[in-house]
Amino acid sequence: MKTLVVTIGGSCVKIMQIHNPSKKAELLYFSMILIHEEVEHYTLKQGYQWLKPDGDKVRWYPWMLNSWIIPRHTFLCWLVAQQRLLTQDRLRRMGIIQHNCCFLCGLEEESHEHLFFGCIYSKMCLQLVKDWCMCPLPDADCIKWWIEWRHTSAYRKKIVAVIMESLMSQLWHCRNLSRLDGLIWRPNVLCSKVKHDVVMRLGQCDIKSRNSRVIGWVNYLTTA
Ligand SMILES: [Zn+2]
Fold first, then answer.
1. How remote is the CA of residue 71 from the centroid of ligand 1, in Å?
2. Can you say how many angstroms the Cα of residue 18 is from the centroid of all Cα atoms in its chain?
3. What sign does the dihedral 138-144-146-148 (CA atoms) show?
4. Are 149 and 157 in contact (CB under 8 A)?
5. Is pLDDT above 70 for 92?
6. 101 forms bridges with which residues in the sheet?
7. Residue 14: beta bridge partners?
8. Is residue 110 within a helix (H) or strand (E), and if so which, with residue range?
9. C-alpha 92 to ligand 1 mean position (Å)
10. pLDDT in tens, 175-214
11. What whole-number distance in Å separates Cα of residue 149 and Cα of residue 23?
């Protein structure tokens, strides 16, 4: 427990008991009090904007966090977008491991770029998913293309987001299975798991598009 004296304009105006000043929540509360004293008409909005860091705006945000995404996939894909998965290349840079070899193909070094979708195994899975969903996903820079994909409807973008994030999640799951148990699914098994995820999720989403092509596509995906 520490006592903090908050002074504004040279005069002591408040004495606060802070249990642990290093704890972020308490410091934030302390900051809110300061704002409250310094502005004439304090509002929650002012306090929130003051506390909120000015981070960079990211283009992938609307895709990664749209409401149709399966919740358990969202966090993993958020890590992928920021290249924060604990891939072999990162672990080696941290000095935790010495070698770096992809658990899926065993041919190249593992990194985010390799897993999504430079690896021959993930390329095969991507091709199977592309064949199934009839979406023009490119072979190279697939994630970059998907994030910057502009010339299509919002419904189509959201459905492709569900498909892509399911594919990335299943690939990461398969990679972990290989690392822990030495087992790798055949690409068509992984693709069927992606299909299952997508069909289940689209069945839960309230799709109200008036675009007959989108409705036809959804019907195809959920019955193919
Ligand atoms: Zn590989």
1. 27
2. 36
3. negative
4. yes
5. yes
6. none
7. 6
8. none
9. 16
10. 999 999 999 999 999 999 999 999 999 888 877 777 788 8
11. 42
Beta bridge partners of 118: none
Question: What are 143's two structure tokens?
Answer: 């994630």
The rounded distance, in Å, linking the Cα atoms of 119 and 141 is 12
Q: What kind and span of H or E run contains 109?
A: none
Phi, psi of 89 (to 5 degrees): -65, -35
- Strand, helix or coil at 63? helix
Pick from 61, 65, 63, 36: which is nearest to 48 by CA? 36
- Is 166 in a helix, a strand, or coil? helix
Ligand 1 centre and the CA of 159: distance in Å? 27
CA of 60 to the centre of ligand 1 (A): 25
- Give the integer Cα–Cα distance in Å for 10 and 22: 25
